[in-house]
Write a structure and sequence with these properties.
Layout (H helix, E strand, L loop, with lengths): L47 E4 L2 E4 L8 E5 L4 E5 L6
Antiparallel strand pairs: 1-2, 3-4
C-alpha cells in the first residue's frame, strides 16, 4: 500500500468557533531566550493567527518554536526556539 499525503483543507474561518475567536495577544520579550508568559509553542501543522480580525497563515511551521510578530506588511515568521539549560 502506497502512502498518500491527505489534501490540506483550509479552515472555514466564517463559522464558530473560529468566527468568534479573539485576536492574538502580542507581548514583548523582556529577556533574550525567555518567552513571555502564556506564549504559544508552534507545531508541525499549519498555524493561523488572528490579527486585527484577519486570519494569517504563518509562512513556516516547525515544532517547538515561538512566533515573532513583525508588523511589516502583516508578515509573520517563525523563529527557532531556544532551549534553557
Amino acid at each position: 500500500m502506497q502512502f498518500r499525503l491527505p489534501k490540506y483543507e483550509t479552515p472555514d474561518f466564517t463559522v464558530e468557533p473560529l468566527a468568534g475567536a479573539p485576536n492574538v495577544n502580542i507581548a514583548l520579550v523582556e529577556l533574550d531566550g525567555v518567552a513571555p508568559e502564556y506564549f504559544h509553542s508552534t507545531s508541525m501543522y499549519p498555524e493561523y493567527f488572528k490579527v486585527d480580525g484577519q486570519w494569517l497563515l504563518a509562512r513556516q511551521s516547525r515544532m517547538d518554536s515561538c512566533v515573532e510578530a513583525v508588523r511589516l506588511l502583516s508578515l509573520f515568521r517563525i523563529t527557532r526556539s531556544q532551549t534553557a539549560l
